[in-house]
Amino acid sequence: MPYMKASKIKQPLSVLKDIRSQKCGLRCTIFSASGNEYNGEWQDDKKHGKGIQVWKKSGAIYSGEWKFGKRDGYGTCSVLLPDKEYARKYCGGWKNGKKHGYGTYFYNSSAVYEGEWSEDQRSGWGRMYYGSGDIYEGEWMKDKTHGQGIIRFANGNWYEGTWRDGKKNGNGKFYYPDKGQLYEGFWVDGVAKCGTLSDFGRDEAPTPTKYPIPQVHLVDMQLVLREAQSGLNQA
């Protein structure tokens, strides 16, 4: 019986060229059809590892880690200003091309957020410095204040309590150190619905009210607040 030599299956020339052209490892600057530039590491023809991407249209730059073609890990994103100077926009964690984990974002209005992110949105714990001078520190969910948090206003007043969908909701305390007063009560969609106003640090207040708030003696003040809150919930 004659010996038959097994023949290898030949792949089309176009497939062979494609395999040979696939990028893997460290490469020099690669230009895409749209004019974007990438300089860094590759794996299986995808950006993978550390690299720098420059977008031609916006001039934005990302420098950091990549995973299978998407920003993933730690990285910094900067934008090109009209005066041709670069300004840092975000530095922190990324996952699957979106801001994720701990990071700092710089807004155009001089506001700054530093804290946790999830799916490109502020979620978890974070601190927000607003352009007005107000500062919020606490919990976030889906880009809105949600949970327990404190906001300190530029005028010195502050609120600490519960938030929902970006507004004061639930039990909280509002301090007026300039007047030496404290409001403690219940909020619904940012509006105080029921509570008590009392003197707090009146002797140290720079502009206290003319007369102190008279003491109101209730058998059970908390019971009164709970009943009022229950009525609001049923409304």
Automatic annotation (TrEMBL):
Q: Where is the signal peptide?
A: none
The keyword Repeat appears for this protein: yes
**Entry-linked Gene3D superfamilies:** Histone H3 K4-specific methyltransferase SET7/9 N-terminal domain
Which keywords, in A-to-Z order, does the entry hold? Answer: Cytoplasmic vesicle, Repeat
Key word Repeat present: yes
InterPro entries named in the record: MORN, MORN3
Any one GO CC term of this protein is: acrosomal vesicle
Where does the record place it?
Answer: Cytoplasmic vesicle, Secretory vesicle, Acrosome
Q: Which superkingdom?
A: Eukaryota
Role according to the record: Assembles a suppression complex (suppresome) by tethering SIRT1 and MDM2 to regulate composite modifications of p53/TP53. Confers both deacetylation-mediated functional inactivation, by SIRT1, and ubiquitination-dependent degradation, by MDM2, of p53/TP53, promoting a proliferative and cell survival behaviors. May play a role in the regulation of spermatogenesis.
The name on file for this protein is: MORN repeat-containing protein 3
Organism the protein comes from = Larimichthys crocea
